[in-house]
Design goal:
It is built from 5 helices and 7 strands, in the order H-H-H-H-E-E-E-E-E-E-E-H. With about 230 residues, the protein is an alpha+beta fold. The chain has 2 domains: about 110 residues, no CATH class; about 110 residues, PH-domain like. A 4-stranded antiparallel sheet has the order 1-2-3-4, covered by helices on one side. It has a 3-stranded antiparallel sheet with strand order 5-6-7, with helices on one face. Strand 1 and strand 2 form a beta hairpin. Helix 1 runs antiparallel to helix 4, helix 2 packs antiparallel against helix 3 and helix 3 runs antiparallel to helix 4. The longest helix has 24 residues.
Length: about 230
């Protein structure tokens, strides 16, 4: 799994550096200045990888950003050596790069959580579970708390709710039909009811239904960390 993370933070910039170097070698010496972009990404990736190593919530954003930059650079940089036609593919390249990056991040998430390893409870990983039908929303399970947030980087108190693990009194798996009206511990504006598994989370006298396709794994993680 950490190999995939390394591929996101270091592999994508390294591949882009090779591509830019090959393109620059066909032009004037001034074209080599284009290597600044992948080298900068490589430095940033090296620094961020150390910070985000155990924080999967950041993997998706970095993967999308690096993938998108790679797609744009590969299609636009040939202009520096007088080749214009790849620029026509700039938008598809951007989209393809973002999609490829996000796919890598999803693969890293899945490698971390599926199948669930009880030993994860004793690691410093901050585990992330996406909420189905609520764009950008997720449940973050830390070493001693669980947070439900509507945005990857909450900017206001109403966008997230944090409970210490000691405040959780119950977790139950539940199946939604898609017709229920759900209440969430956070403010959401674009919730779409959907059929599938969910987790009933009881904490501080409150009951919340959290739709997630990884309901069983979320319950296992909470159970292990509450008991550790």
């Amino acid at each position: 799994m950490q190999r995939i993370v390394a591929g996101i933070y270091l592999g994508i910039p390294a591949v882009l550096l090779v591509v830019v170097a090959v393109i620059a070698s066909t032009g004037t010496p001034a074209a080599w200045i284009g290597c600044v972009v992948p080298v900068g990404m490589l430095v940033i990736g090296f620094v961020l990888r150390r910070r985000h190593r155990y924080q999967p919530r950041w993997w998706l954003g970095v993967a999308g950003l690096f993938g998108g930059l790679t797609g744009l650079t590969v299609t636009l940089f040939p202009l520096a050596v007088g080749v214009w036609w790849p620029a026509i593919l700039a938008l598809p390249g951007l989209i393809l790069g973002i999609v490829a990056g996000l796919a890598l991040a999803r693969a890293a998430d899945r490698a971390l959580l599926v199948p669930f390893d009880p030993e994860l409870a004793g690691t410093p990983y901050e585990l992330v579970f996406r909420l189905r039908g609520i764009p950008l929303a997720a449940v973050l399970v830390g070493a001693d708390s669980v947070t439900v947030q509507s945005h990857p980087v909450p900017r206001a108190a109403h966008q997230f709710r944090t409970y210490p693990l000691t405040a959780i009194t119950g977790t139950y798996e539940f199946s939604l039909s898609g017709s229920e009206r759900l209440r969430f511990p956070i403010a959401v504006t674009h919730a779409v009811a959907s059929q599938g598994p969910a987790v009933i989370l009881q904490a501080n006298g409150e009951d919340w239904v959290l739709p997630t396709n990884q309901a069983g794994t979320l319950i296992d993680v909470l159970t292990e960390r509450r008991g550790s």
